[in-house]
Amino acid sequence: MSEKIYTIPVNDAFDKGSECPICSLYQELEQNAVEFITDTAYMQDDIRMETDEKGFCEKHISMMLLQKNRLGIALMLKTHLDRQIRNGKKASEKPVKIHSLLKKEPNPAADWAENAQSQCFVCDRINLTFPVYLDSVLYLYKRDPEFRKKYEGCKGFCQKHYAMLLRKGQEVLSQKEFDSFYQLTANLYFNNLQRLSDDLDWFCDKFDYRYHDAPWKDSKDAIERGIVKTNSILPDDKKK
Q1: Of 116, 137, 110, 147, whose CA–CA distance to 52 is shortest?
Q2: Among 167, 164, 193, which residue's Cα sits nearest to residue 178?
Q3: Please, which residues have CB within 8 angstroms of residue 67's CB and are 6 or more apart in sequence?
Q4: CA 28 – CA 8 distance, rounded (Å)
Q5: Cα-based torsion angle of the residue sequence 176, 178, 180, 184 in order, rounded to the nearest 10 degrees
Q6: What is the distance between the alpha carbons of residues 177 and 175, in angstroms, rounded to a whole number?
Q7: By C-alpha distance, which of 44, 80, 38 is closest to 62?
Q8: pTM of the model
Q9: Residue 77 DSSP one-character state
Q10: Is residue 240 very low, low, confident or very high in pLDDT (cuts 50, 70, 90)?
Q11: Can you tell me the distance from the alpha carbon of 26 to that of 20, in angstroms, rounded to the nearest whole number?
C-alpha cells in the first residue's frame, strides 16, 4: 500500500526493534514537540499565548533544558509566571473557611494552583497526535500485510500501551478481527515479558561466583529493557 503521512512514523517505530514500538512512537512525538517549542516557535504569538497559559510539566521542562536554549526558556517562564501572578492573586482574594464536619468548604486558591500544575503545552501537543498514530497502528494491521508481519514479529509492548492497543482494537475491529488481534497481542505481550524475566534471572545469576565466567547472553541491559515493559520508559536513542 502507498504510505500516508501518518503511517510512516508507525512503520518506522516498528522497524526500530524496541521493547515497545508504541513507546518509540511516543518518544519521537515527545522529542519533536520539545524541539519545536525550544527552537523558534515560542516567538509566535499564538504559541506564546498557549505556553503562557499552560506552562510545562516537570518532565518536559527538564527535557527543554537539555536543548540549551536558555533565553527562550527564560522568556516563556517570565510571561507564564506573570500570568500566574495575575490569575493566582484573583483566585486568592476571597477568604477561605475551614471544613466543618458536615460540609467541605470551597478553596478557589488551591483549585487554581492544582489546575495550573496539571497543564503542559508539550503534553497537550503530543496528545493531539498520539491517538491518530494509535489509530494508524490498527489501520495498518487491518490493511497492510507487510505491517502485519512487523506487528507479529515485534518484541511486545509495555503494560500501558498493551492496554491501549486492546481497547483501540475493541473499538475499531470486527469481532472476528478482534479475536485474532486480541490473541496475537496477548501472546506478544506475555511471551516477551517471559523473555525479559528470563534475562533478569540470568542477570541476577551472573552475580553468583559460580557463573562469573559464563557469558552474559542477552542480559546486560535486562534492567533497562524490563523498565520499558513495566514503566514505559524508553532509553533515549540519542544517548545510545
Answers
A1: 116
A2: 167
A3: 34, 35, 38
A4: 12
A5: 180
A6: 5
A7: 38
A8: 0.87
A9: H
A10: very low
A11: 10
